[in-house]
Design brief:
Number of helices: 6
Structural class: alpha+beta
Largest sheet: 6 strands, mixed
Radius of gyration: 21 Å
Shape: elongated
Order of helices and strands: EEHEEHEHHEHEEEEEH
Protein name: Integral membrane protein
Strand content: 15-25%
Mean pLDDT: 82
Helix content: 10-25%
Distance between the termini: 22 Å
Number of strands: 11
Length: 305
């Protein structure tokens, strides 16, 4: 997040004190809003333009929350990259790039503009639509599941180091799912993401040392891998499969579908999260089929420009 004391852009009625900005593009969108790019756009009432948008979140002079949608994606990309590097960047979009000024915030922010009232929704008379609000992540569901997948992708090494190749006996069912060896507890979750822990390798419930994993976990993995394979033959909505940078020659793959998320490295294993298994992360070993599936998904995935 980037808190800027002086940045301001004009909304319809007042200046906006910028708190942060995020991209909304096919390759990079807040996954908490949806399983794919069109679904994330629909959450904001926006058409899924091919080039995407930049979302500028801030407060007006009265402290009201506003989300300014702009079509200058490059400007927001530069701002976000600068803030991520700890550099100052004054985000001041040209008024001609403003697509819409939407009341409320679609994401939860822990910062506020100095010198104005505490963040609140605009008064009803100043709105043309209900204010945006973040998805409910207080209970396990699709939003929590996607946040959990985000967490694994961003802290891959901390999750991966808790599993050894010996935790994945050679599969006999073609899924690549591992056996029943227990693994240590996972790192703590942050920012309200899923309180998920690595399960027993393959399909166990969260927690260390639990054995004899329920068959339902294996069935869930089979279903996810089958639906992911179907994406190769029938491309899903834009953004359902995304590929991003990873160390070495690998790529980080993220795929989502109805009730599931998959995070993988193209040279390594995968992790699966399911709506039907609250707070659990199911590791999937390389096996015989996973490498080819990950390669095929990477070829058809959306990549950052």
């Amino acid at each position: 997040m980037a808190e800027t004391d002086e940045d301001a852009v004009a909304t319809a009625d007042d200046a906006l004190y910028v708190l942060t900005a995020v991209l909304l593009t096919p390759a990079n969108f807040p996954s908490v809003l949806g399983d794919d790019y069109p679904e994330a756009c629909a959450a904001l009432g926006l058409p899924p333009l091919a080039d995407g948008y930049g979302l500028v979140l801030g407060q007006d002079g009265d402290g009201a929350r506003w989300t300014v949608v702009i079509d200058d994606v490059s400007l927001v990309a530069v701002a976000v990259a600068s803030w991520d590097c700890g550099m100052e960047y004054e985000l001041s979009p040209d008024e001609r790039t403003v697509v819409a000024a939407l009341p409320g915030w679609p994401l939860a922010l822990a910062v506020a503009a100095p010198g104005v009232p505490a963040p609140h929704d605009p008064a009803p008379e100043s709105e043309d639509q209900p204010p945006l609000s973040p998805p409910d992540t207080t209970a396990w569901g699709s939003a929590q599941r996607r946040l959990g997948a985000d967490e694994i992708a961003s802290r891959w090494s901390q999750w991966r180091e808790q599993l050894d190749d010996s935790d994945f006996p050679a599969p006999d069912d073609g899924t690549g799912a591992g056996g029943d060896a227990g693994v240590p507890d996972a790192p703590e979750r942050e920012a309200g993401a899923a309180a998920a822990e690595p399960a027993d390798a393959g399909a166990g419930r969260a927690g260390a040392g639990r054995k004899n994993a329920p068959e339902s976990g294996h069935n869930g993995i089979r279903r996810v891998l089958a639906e992911a394979r179907a994406y190769v033959d029938t491309p899903p909505p834009l953004g359902r499969v995304r590929s991003s940078f990873a160390p070495g020659e690998a790529r980080t793959l993220r795929a989502d579908g109805p009730g599931w998320s998959l995070v993988a490295r193209t040279d390594d294993i995968a992790f699966v999260l399911l709506d039907e298994k609250p707070g659990e992360v199911l590791p999937v070993g390389r096996g015989a089929e996973l490498p080819g599936l990950l390669e095929a998904l990477d070829k058809m995935a959306v990549r950052p420009g």
